[in-house]
From TrEMBL:
Keywords (A to Z) from UniProt: RNA-binding
Domain RRM, chain residue ranges per copy: 315-388
Pfam families associated with the record: 5-FTHF_cyc-lig (PF01812), RRM_1 (PF00076)
Organism whose genome encodes this protein: Mesembrinibis cayennensis
Protein name: Methenyltetrahydrofolate synthase domain-containing protein
A GO cellular component annotation in the UniProt record: cytoplasm
An example Gene Ontology molecular-function term: RNA binding
Superkingdom: Eukaryota
Length: 401
C-alpha cells in the first residue's frame, strides 16, 4: 500500500478508516457525496471498477445478487439489472426489513434502469422481501473503507454489512461458499493486522479496483450466523427484523442470550419483582422467567380488570393472518419474547386473529413496531392498531376485515 496509508503497528480499525478517508479527500480522489468521512467512500473511477464485475464467472453464474446501497456500488447494481438478474438491496439501516427487491417496470429503457440503480430508484422501484421470501443469494457485493489483499475488510464502523451477512446466514439465504466481492479504489487496498478482525467480521473473496481484480483466496471462515451475545437491546430495537430472527432461532433451540441480558439477569432480585416491573412498563425482556412464572392471568385480566374498566385510555392492537395451526400459547410466548405483553388478550383462533389491550396508545404503538414482521407457523402476521377503538378496551370486531 502507499507508504502514507500503511497503518503503523498497533493501529486500530478507526485509525485505518481515518487514514483512508483523509487520503481520498486530500488527493482529490473523493467523489460525491462528500466529505467521504463516516461513509463507504465514493471515489473517482468507481464506475470503471464496478464494470469489471461483468468479467467474473461468479457474476455470470449468479441469478440473485445482493448489493449494498452505497453510491460507489451503483455500477454493480446497474450491471445486475442490465443482465436481468434479481437485485436485492438491504433496506437503509435495516429499519423496515432486510432486503428490498428492485423491480424495474416492464420494458424499462436504459435510462430507467440507470435510475433503478440509484438511491432514488431503490426507493421508487422496490418491493420488500420478507423473512419468508425464500431469498437465495448467489453473490454478495459490499462496500468497504479499507480491505487487504488477504480479503480482510474494514467497513465504516456501524456493523451493518456484517449484520446483514449474519442475518442472511440465519435465513438460509447464503451458504458458506457464496462469494463476496468489494469495490474500492486502489489506495483503499492496505495492510490490515489480523488481530483487528473479530469472528463477526465479514471477509471478501474478490476485490475490484479501477485497475485490478484481486482474488483473495481468503481462508478465514465467514460469520456462521448472528452472534447473539454481541447484540445489544439497542440494536434489537433499531433493527426490528432481528427480533423475528431471534424468535425463530430460540424456537429452534439456539442460545439467543443478548449482550446486556447477562448483567440484567445478575441484577434481577426476584422473578416476581421482574414480572411486576415488566407488566408495568412492557419494556424489558422477560427472558429470565419461564412461562410458569409469568402466569396465565394477564390474558384473563382478573386482577387488572378494575384498572382496565376504570381507564379511558386502553388501546387495542389487532393481530391477523394467524395460521390455524398456531395455538394461543405460541402467541403469548412470542409476545413475551418481543416485550409486548398486553394487559389482556382476546384470542379468536377460529377467525385467525387476536386482539391485544395495552394501557395507552404509546405502549400499543410500541408493541406494533416490535411485532412488525413477526412470523408464526409460516405466516407473517398482520399487526396494526385496531380500527375502532372503544373506551373500555372493547373493539368492534366487524370493523376488521
Amino acid at each position: 500500500c502507499p507508504p502514507q496509508l500503511c497503518p503503523p503497528p498497533g493501529a486500530s480499525k478507526q485509525d485505518v478508516r481515518e487514514k483512508v478517508w483523509d487520503h481520498l479527500e486530500a488527493s482529490g480522489l473523493a467523489d460525491f457525496p462528500r466529505p467521504v468521512h463516516r461513509r463507504i467512500p465514493n471515489f473517482k473511477g468507481s464506475h470503471q471498477a464496478c464494470c469489471s464485475i461483468k468479467e467474473l464467472d461468479v457474476f455470470d453464474r449468479a441469478r440473485e445478487i445482493k448489493v449494498d446501497p452505497d453510491k460507489p456500488l451503483e455500477g454493480v447494481r446497474l450491471a445486475a439489472l442490465q443482465a436481468r438478474k434479481t437485485l436485492l438491496v438491504p433496506t437503509p439501516r435495516l429499519r423496515t426489513g432486510l432486503f428490498n427487491k428492485i423491480v424495474p417496470p416492464s420494458g424499462a429503457t436504459k435510462e430507467i434502469l440507470r435510475i433503478c440503480a440509484t438511491s432514488q430508484g431503490i426507493k421508487e422501484y422496490s418491493v420488500p422481501v420478507g423473512l419468508d421470501g425464500k431469498a437465495r443469494v448467489d453473490l454478495v457485493v459490499v462496500g468497504s473503507v479499507a480491505v487487504s489483499e488477504k480479503g480482510w475488510r474494514i467497513g465504516k464502523g456501524e456493523g451493518y454489512a456484517d449484520m446483514e451477512y449474519a442475518m442472511m446466514v440465519s435465513m438460509g439465504a447464503v451458504q458458506a461458499d457464496t462469494p463476496v466481492i468489494t469495490i474500492v479504489h486502489d489506495c483503499q487496498v492496505v495492510d490490515i493486522a489480523e488481530e483487528l478482525l473479530g469472528d463477526h467480521d465479514l471477509t471478501v473473496d474478490y476485490i475490484l479496483t479501477p485497475t485490478r481484480t484481486i482474488k483473495t483466496n481468503c481462508k478465514r471462515p465467514k460469520p456462521q450466523g448472528i452472534i447473539w451475545h454481541k447484540v445489544s437491546y439497542e440494536m434489537l430495537e433499531k433493527i426490528p427484523i432481528l427480533k423475528s430472527l431471534r424468535y425463530r432461532e430460540k424456537q429452534a433451540g439456539k442460545d439467543v442470550t443478548l449482550q446486556d441480558e447477562r448483567s440484567d439477569l445478575a441484577n434481577a432480585s426476584t422473578p416476581a419483582a421482574l414480572n411486576e416491573k415488566a407488566m408495568a412498563e412492557n419494556t424489558r425482556p422477560q427472558a429470565a422467567m419461564g412461562s410458569a412464572q409469568i402466569g396465565q392471568h394477564y390474558v384473563e385480566s382478573d386482577s387488572l380488570s378494575p384498572r382496565l374498566e376504570g381507564s379511558g385510555t386502553i388501546t387495542t392492537v389487532y393481530v391477523g393472518n394467524i395460521p390455524p395451526s398456531v395455538r394461543v400459547s405460541e402467541l403469548k410466548c412470542a409476545l413475551r419474547e418481543f416485550r409486548a405483553t398486553p394487559l389482556r388478550l382476546n384470542w379468536q383462533g377460529a377467525q385467525h386473529r387476536a386482539f391485544l389491550d395495552y394501557k395507552d396508545k404509546a405502549t400499543a404503538e410500541s408493541a406494533v413496531s416490535s411485532l412488525k414482521g413477526l412470523s408464526l407457523g409460516g405466516n407473517t402476521l398482520r399487526v396494526e392498531l385496531a380500527k375502532n377503538q372503544r373506551n373500555k378496551g372493547q373493539v368492534e370486531i366487524n370493523s376488521q376485515k
